[in-house]
Design goal:
single chain, Rossmann fold, 2 domains, six-stranded mixed sheet, about 10% strand, Disease resistance N-terminal domain-containing protein, leucine-rich repeat, plant defense, P-loop_NTPase, repeat
């Protein structure tokens, strides 16, 4: 009776292993085909984004489309690398399973039956996880293919914008020439600074920039202030901190600010840019005194940028406030690969 029972169990085990292996190979084949399609669509998006970042785009709608493309590219590469990591993990797990299966032959049939179900429990869980992962892969692939299909007009309009001098990510990320992931925000600030709107009763343009601590508000503004167009536009660029504003009088603050740029010959009108960095709010009385003082001492073409963590300063601006948020995990992963390997694909 024991030999017959052992033969039946052995046959069932063999069939179960064959079924699990067949399902696994089929899913892997379909998954690999989808990953190849994902690589192809990411190459198209990457080429479009790189071409767009090499152009001086001023249209806000096109900048928003570029931002959508960039975010989709970050998510796509993150998904692709996730599957690559899992493939390496599965390969390592397969080697360990092979060594374990060889060791099983030393045990009795009853011991083998117990061990079989405990060993096959992990692949069963992986198959469940694979089903969810494949669903996410399908959604990602469909979303990116639809996105790149809708960008024909975007690619056509790119040719109408002038090229700007730049180098690949692998070179310029290390030279403070580009702030990663903030092109749209940078162009918004540049548009505000370079626009010469007609002066009305001595009013000055004010742009509030809002965001949490360490999101990069001051870094972004300082980066924009290094732009040659901004330095030609303003003869004086001064940064003030919240601690400098107790008096609320710009005339008494000139000595306390940090001058980032000064060239009296660069602009015949002598326009100035004042950047005020706040940690929190500013009461209305202090702001009115500071704004009135600035309007009396600065030329009508001068500008003010306010940075703060508080959303309340949005009411102090003459332009729509710019809100900065932290970049996504996928964007940070893309940045890390680019900085570490000089390419979005370390295997290339």
């Amino acid at each position: 009776m024991e030999p017959l029972l052992s033969a039946i169990v052995g046959d069932l085990v063999s069939r179960a292993l064959s079924m699990v292996t067949q399902r696994y190979l089929q899913s892997k084949g379909a998954e690999e085909e989808k990953l190849q399609r994902l690589r192809a669509v990411l190459l198209r998006i990457d080429a479009t984004v790189e071409e767009a970042e090499g152009r001086h785009i001023t249209n806000q709608a096109m900048l928003q489309q570029l931002q959508m493309l960039r975010r989709g590219m970050y998510r796509g590469y993150y998904t692709l690398d996730t599957f690559r990591y899992r493939a390496h993990r599965d390969e390592a797990y397969g080697e360990a399973s092979t060594r374990r299966s060889l060791a099983l032959s030393r045990f009795s049939p009853s011991s083998s039956r117990r061990t079989f179900f405990s060993v096959c429990d992990a692949p069963s869980r992986d198959l469940v996880l694979d089903a969810g992962s494949c669903s996410n892969l399908d959604k990602m692939l469909s979303s990116l293919e639809r996105m790149i299909g809708d960008m024909q007009e975007f690619v056509m309009f790119l040719a109408s914008y002038p090229r700007i001098s730049r180098q690949p990510y692998s070179a310029y990320l290390f030279h403070d020439q580009v702030m990663f992931g903030r092109q749209m925000e940078k162009e918004t600030i540049l548009s505000f600074l370079l626009c010469r709107e007609a002066a009305r009763n001595g009013s000055l343009g004010v742009l509030p920039i809002i965001g949490p601590a360490r999101v990069g508000k001051s870094t972004l503004v300082e980066h924009v202030c290094h732009d040659e167009r901004v330095r030609r536009r303003f003869s004086l660029i001064v940064f003030f901190s919240g601690n400098d504003l107790n008096g609320g009088n710009l005339a008494t603050l000139k000595g306390s600010g940090v001058i980032k740029h000064q060239n009296l010959a660069s602009s015949p009108r002598g326009d100035s840019l004042a950047v005020i960095e706040l940690a929190g709010d500013m009461d209305e009385e202090t702001w009115r005194g500071l704004y009135t003082s600035a309007a009396n001492h600065l030329t009508p073409g001068s500008k003010i940028i306010l940075t703060s963590r508080s959303e309340k300063i949005a009411s102090l601006g003459t332009a729509q406030s710019l809100v900065l948020k932290f970049l996504s995990q996928e964007a940070y992963w893309y940045f890390f690969k680019t900085a570490a390997f000089g390419s979005t694909d370390p295997e290339c």
